[in-house]
Amino acid sequence: MADPGYPGRTRAPGGLPDRPGHLPLRPFRTPAPGATLIGVETWRVVATGAFIVGGLVLVLVGMAQVRDRVRRRSEQDAKHAQVLRAALIGLVAVAAVALLIALWLPSTVAWALVAANALAIVFLTTAD
Questions:
Q1: Of 92, 106, 113, which is closest to residue 49 (Cα–Cα)?
Q2: Which residue has the higher pLDDT, 113 or 77?
Q3: How far apart are CA 81 and CA 88, in angstroms?
Q4: Which residues contact 94 (CB under 8 A, 6 or more apart)?
Q5: 8 A C-beta contact, residue 4 and residue 12
Q6: Beta bridge partners of 17
Q7: What SS3 state is found at 46?
Q8: Strand pairing partners for 11?
Q9: How many CB atoms lie within 10 A of CB 94?
């Protein structure tokens, strides 16, 4: 049986070369360039990680702002619930956008979101 990748060489019916003592002509499939072991491009992993780290910082900043706002209003009864609600909404939003970055968004949009995330952190943390 002829090997389609190497004209002039043959393989035995089991896929091994017809010469004993030799390894198969192509024993392993090489990974695609730019792919990691899990099959996701490296830039997607880096962008997703950067967005998640920045997103968690923004969630913490948002929780602190809700806590401060509730303290000023003197609504101590609902303070804990409002802070938890802000954390849940923030974490769901960060997880949804991180999933979009990891699987679907093009690189320009993904990196723009990471940059916007970094700018939001800088402005929100230095504004006070």
A1: 113
A2: 113
A3: 10
A4: 51, 52, 55, 56, 58, 59
A5: no
A6: 11
A7: helix
A8: 17
A9: 19
